[in-house]
UniProtKB/TrEMBL annotation:
Residues 360-567 form the Peptidase M28 domain. It is a single-pass type II membrane protein. It catalyses: Release of an unsubstituted, C-terminal glutamyl residue, typically from Ac-Asp-Glu or folylpoly-gamma-glutamates. This is glutamate carboxypeptidase II. The chain crosses the membrane at residues 12-34. Residues 178-263 form the PA domain. CDD domains: M28_PSMA_like, PA_GCPII_like. One of its GO terms (molecular function) is dipeptidase activity. Homodimer. One of its GO terms (cellular component) is plasma membrane.
């Protein structure tokens, strides 16, 4: 044994003795240090900071410092060039954001790449580019779709504008003598066709208008019903205030006739080749032709309403009922063989799927007392083109919120109790790639440590009121925040706060509180709620839904979603961007900084009860006719409510000077939502794991309460 080894042994011995002495002292402190007054106990010698509640002045300081001009400037920079996922511009945006976060004083920043299957159209060879044609009986082209959206304002004159396409469309060159109009392409539309007409779409090309449901579900329904291809178009009813004669971009916020909605038609979430596990470089991958990828098998292509009108003029068949008619000044027909005999319609798609890197970027403010508890704020970075609303309005606001919080941390004025993580997601537009892969990789860490995920896809899509999608536990937190934020519309003196306006615009059924919508899988919150069971919320300022009966903000996913459109028509002065940011920041601050996590679990119990009642109202008699009893559901929700009430008593009376008691209660609050995660997933949908709130299986944008039951009944 060398002298050095002997020294080491002596040191080890000393260390063991020291440890034992330390343990004994610790036990003695534990035995005698805990005072017992009236059976109550206190731990002495614990620093006050461990049990201090949030500094009440910080909330206002953060909100006051959020500045509209900064947000406007960030948006201008972010939308200067197209930033499609998987391109150099997309990577640059992630790097720039990382640099920004360093510069505003965040403690740590990092980038995580994933290698995912993306999809791109041919852009160079015009003879291969995606296009739809109509041929006459002599084989001459009588109509074709546009290759590009024309430049309507000089600010759009940029390179790398991807032509309109539907990502993950199957490639193909197909033709048909028949074109059939299927309204929105929903299950109920096909059912109506089958019951009221003798049109059979097998082997035909169908034409569906955008709106009502997720476009991927339209393509999927067409495919499973045997259609050979599908054309999607934006009807003025949904995108131009009901008429092709409306004032449109570049003079107003409505969609011009050439405007075309891009978008993914993949119906899963995350990388199609690595379902359920992270798309790291070395991961096992499915073969693209494996049915488990759920990739579309028929060609699908989007067009604007200008050319759609001409296409419809070639259609034959009976007139459709009123509810199937849109806003074009033309007779809407069911179709069938084209009007002129011998004419044919052809779809040529050369879109290909390809593996590319996408980048998530993170910026961290480390928590002062509980650094291992995370509050996550996320927004995606990738856009179909300029993305001035989707997602860069949200990115601009995230930059401003992180700047304000970073400055407070840097100047040592504030450090949140828990860790705050800002997340910039890659390839959301392709179907939530970056966020889903990250959750798949870190689902266990997140499950054990994350308090909440707060999503902002777009800060605004209008300037009228807030709209919130969230799990029930978020309800009281977001009500509290919105009561602190002034209504950004100062001409609207009737409503003082964001809360007041929101209550007016979206009241719940008894008009006592604003209505909170369920979370679908429309944005990056999906994996957090569905896979990890994190309480989640999605913030957005929206337009007046009673005044505008449109499917979304009209320029959605078109090239015309530009800085100009936002700056001149949608949020002049950027006040609604600011209000969105203030609500987002305040919710984050409250969750990260409060001594006791401010979720109210009673709201969950109420929501479950409402959900059961609604289910009973809608489907109760059908369920009973099929031998399914609802009594057990009522019993279970009543039991849950009773447990919640007794838990709430413990929360209200917890010893606020005891950090262990606080931590225990907080962990129970934090983990509550996880109780609804079934690791096996819903019947037939192993990756949809939340048994109370999941997306509807026929429309991924919407959400159903008790999706397992609703899906089962839908089949019946
Ligand atoms: C776009 O810009 C190029 C030069 O940068 C110019 O030649 C062209 O005329 C512009 N097109 C339009 C429609 O403004
Ligand atoms: C139409 O499609 C069929 C089957 O894909 C193909 O055999 C035929 O050549 C096509 N006809 C035209 C006119 O493109
Ligand atoms: C539709 O047509 C296909 C093939 O032409 C046929 O197999 C199918 O049974 C038809 N469906 C109905 C409902 O008639
Ligand atoms: C994927 O499957 C197709 C069809 O089964 C096959 O031709 C191809 O070789 C497979 N590719 C790989 C990489 O295994
Ligand atoms: C609709 O079209 C008809 C014929 O094409 C035309 O006479 C009429 O003025 C149009 N109506 C509107 C509101 O544009
Ligand atoms: C608010 O949006 C509407 C369209 O919904 C637009 O007409 C109006 O000018 C906008 N107001 C501001 C201040 O941006
Ligand atoms: Zn988005």
């Amino acid at each position: 044994m060398s002298p050095r080894a002997q020294n080491t042994r002596r040191f080890l011995l000393l260390a063991v003795v020291a440890a034992i002495v330390g343990l004994v002292i610790g036990l003695l402190i534990g035995r005698f240090g805990i005072r017992s007054d009236n059976d109550d106990y206190r731990i002495t010698g614990i620093s006050e900071t461990f049990v201090q509640d949030a500094d009440p002045t910080i909330s206002e300081e953060i909100m006051d410092n959020i500045n509209s001009d900064n947000i406007r400037q960030y948006l201008r920079e972010l939308t200067e060039y197209p930033h499609l996922a998987g391109t150099d511009a997309d990577y640059k945006q992630a790097k720039d954001l990382q640099e920004f976060w360093r510069s505003v004083g965040l403690d740590e920043t990092f980038i995580t790449p994933y290698d995912v299957l993306l999809s791109y159209p041919e852009t160079k060879d015009e003879s291969k580019m995606n296009r739809i044609f109509v041929y006459d009986s002599a084989g001459q082209v009588v109509w074709k779709s546009a290759l590009y959206e024309p430049i309507l304002d000089p600010s759009e004159n940029k390179s790398n504008v991807v032509p309109p396409f539907n990502a993950y469309s199957a490639p193909g060159d197909i033709n048909s003598t028949d074109l059939v109009y299927v309204n929105y392409g929903r299950v109920e539309d096909y059912r109506w066709l089958a019951q009221n007409t003798d049109i059979n779409i097998t082997g035909k090309i169908v034409l569906a208008r955008y709106g009502k449901i997720f476009r991927g579900d339209k393509a999927r329904q067409a495919e499973i019903r045997g259609a050979k291809g599908i054309i999607l178009y934006s009807d003025p009813e949904e995108y131009a205030d009901d008429s092709e004669n409306t004032d449109v971009y570049p003079h107003d916020w409505f969609l011009p006739e050439s405007g075309t909605q891009r978008g993914s038609i993949y119906i899963g979430i995350g990388d199609p080749l690595t379902p359920g596990y992270p798309a790291t470089e070395t991961a096992y991958r499915l073969n693209e032709s494996d049915p488990n990828t759920m990739l579309p098998k028929i060609p699908c292509h989007p067009i604007g309403y200008g050319v759609a009108k001409t296409l419809m003029s070639y259609m034959s068949g009976d007139q459709v009922p009123a509810s199937w008619r849109g806003g074009l000044n033309i007779t809407y027909r069911f179709g069938g063989p084209l009007k002129q005999s011998g004419w044919k319609i052809r779809i040529r798609i050369s879109t290909t799927n390809t593996r590319r890197k996408t980048y998530n970027v993170f910026g961290v403010i480390r928590g002062s007392v509980e650094p291992d508890r995370y509050v996550l704020l996320g927004n995606h970075l990738d856009a179909w083109v300029f993305g001035a609303i989707d997602p860069s309005s949200g990115t601009a606001v995230m930059k401003e919120v992180s700047r304000v919080m970073g400055n407070l941390v840097r100047s040592k004025k504030w450090r949140p109790r828990r860790t705050i993580i800002f997340c910039g997601w890659g390839a959301e537009e392709y179907m939530l790639m970056g966020s889903t892969e990250w959750v798949e990789q870190y689902v266990k860490n997140l499950g054990n440590r994350a308090v909440a995920y707060l999503n902002m896809d777009m800060a605004i899509e209008g300037n009228y009121t807030l709209r919130i999608r969230a799990t029930p536990m978020m309800q009281s937190v977001v009500y509290d925040a919105t009561k602190k934020v002034l209504n950004p519309d100062n001409t609207d003196t009737q409503f003082k706060t964001v809360y007041d306006k929101w209550l007016h615009a979206f009241p719940n059924s008894d008009k006592s509180q604003p209505r909170i919508l369920g979370l679908g899988t429309g944005s990056d919150h999906a994996a957090f709620i569905q896979r990890a069971g994190l309480p989640s919320i999605d913030f957005l300022y929206t337009y007046n839904w009673d005044k505008y009966r449109i499917a979304s903000y009209p320029l959605y996913h078109s090239k015309y979603e530009t800085f100009k459109a936002v700056d001149e028509f949608m949020d002049r002065g950027f006040k609604c961007h600011r209000a969105s940011g203030q609500v987002w920041a305040e919710v984050a601050r409250n969750l990260a900084d409060s001594l006791v996590i401010p979720f109210k679990i009673q709201d969950y119990a109420n929501k479950l009860r409402d959900g059961v009642e609604e289910l009973d109202r809608n489907l109760g008699s059908l369920m009973r006719r099929n031998g399914i009893q609802t009594d057990l559901l009522y019993e279970a929700t009543a039991l849950f409510a009773a447990e919640v009430a007794s838990f709430q008593k413990r929360v209200d009376t917890v010893d606020r000077k005891n950090p262990f008691a606080i931590r225990g209660i907080n962990d129970q609050i934090m983990l509550m939502e996880r109780a609804f995660i079934d690791p096996e997933g819903l019947p037939g949908r192993p990756l949809a794991r939340h048994i109370v709130f999941a997306e509807s299986s026929t429309d991924s944008y919407s959400s159903a309460t008790f999706p397992g039951l609703v899906d089962g009944m839908f089949e019946i």
